[in-house]
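Table S5 (text form). Sequence records supplied for joint modeling of the two-component complex.
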Amino acid sequence: MSFRPPAIAVFSSAIVAALITLTPPAQAHEYKVVDGAIAVSLTGQAGDPVNGKKTAVHRKKGNCLACHSLPIPEQQFHGEIGPDLNGVASRYSEGEIRARIVDPKLANADTIMPAFHRTEGLFRQIEKFKGKTILSAQEVEDIVAYLMTLTE
Amino acid sequence: MLHRLFILSGVAALGLVAMPPASVAGEWGAYEVGDIRSGYTYAAEETRAIQDDEFGNPGFIWVDYGEELWSDVDGAAGKSCESCHGDASAMKDGVSGMKGVATKYPVFSESMGKPINIEQQINNCRVNNMEADPYKWESKEMLSMTTYVKYQSHGMPVNVDISGAIAPFYEKGKNFYYKRRGQLDMACSNCHVDNAGNMIRANLLSQGMANGFPTYRLKWQKPGSLHRRFRGCNKQVRAKPYANGSDEYVNLEVFLTHRSNGLPIETPAVRN
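The corresponding C-alpha cell record, covering 424 residues in total, follows.
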C-alpha cells in the first residue's frame, strides 16, 4: 500500500485543545505532519530511551513485541506481524518514526498497527479507554528515543 | 464416562497406546479445504494429540455429561430431550436423531424471523417443549448439551446454507468481521485473514474457524462457547463486547460458520 499522506495535515481542534488543558495524561496532543513525518517532539521534551524500552515491552502499553521483534533477547516470543525493528533508525528519520507510532495509518491506511496517540475515528471502544490514547505523549517520545538507538 | 473408562482399561490391557496425531506436517487431510484450514492445523502437536486421543481428550467429560442430561426429565411438561428426539446418535430423520444436525447451524428460524444457533435452539426446546428453565449461556449444562449435540456430527463437514431469508443476516455478520473496532482499531480479518500463520507474541494466529466449538481450552481447563471466544477477541482489541446470544454475535456466527463450510466438526476440539 503506497498511500502518500498529504504534504501538510494539521490535527487540531478547539475541542481537543480544550480537553488537553483539563486532562493532560492520555489526551491526544496536537501535532503537525509534514511529508509523512512529525518532526517536533509532542511534549517539547526529549524522550528517555531507558523508559522507552520498558514502555515498548510493557504488555498494557506499547506491547510492540506482539507484532515486532526488537533486540531484546531476554524477552521470549517476538511477534512476526510487522517488520523487525532492529536497525529502524537507519531506515527512518526521527520524525518518520514518531509519525509511525502516533498514527501509522498516515503512511498506510490499511495497516493493522494501532495508532498509539490518536483518539478520533475509533468505534466501540471499551468505556474506560474512550477519548484516551494508548500511549501518552511522553511515552511516545520515550519510545521514539529508544528506537533511535536501534541503528544496527 | 464409565463406559469409556472401561474401554480404556481394556485397551491398556491389550498393550495399545494412544494413537499418534492423524495429521502429517504439510498434509492436513480433511482439516484443510482449499484455502480454509481448521485451527487444528495451527495447534501445537501436543495439543493435537490431546484432541485426537478419545480417552485423554478432556472435552469428553462434557460430552458424557451432555449424554446424561439428554435423557433427564426436566420441566413442567415431564419430558427429556430423548422424549422427542430419541437416540441422539441416530442420523436425523425428521424429528429423531441428532447426527448431522449441527452441520447446518445457525439456521433461519421462521418463528423468530432471524437466525438462531444451537444454544438458542436448545433453550427453545427447553422453554417451549419441556416447560423448563432455559440454560444459562456459559453454564456447565449448556456447554455439555451443546458439546453433546455437536459431537453427534463429529467428522461431518460444516454445511451452513446462506441462501434465502438468512442472507441479509450473513451480510451483517460479514460486515462485523471486517469492521475495525476498539482502541486498537482492529477487525477480525486483520488477525485471522491478513495474518493467519504469523506469531502474535506467543500465539500462532489461525484462520479463526468455528468448527471446533465449544472448544476445550487448556488455558481455562474447560470448554468455552464460540460467543465467549468472540467476547475475548473483542476485548483484546479493547472493543466493547456484545452479550452472548446477541443478534450481532449470532450474525457473526452465521458468517464465520459458513466460512468454515467443508471443515469437519471437531467438537470437542482442544486448543490453547
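Note: The CA atoms of residues 137 and 263 of chain B lie 25 Å apart.
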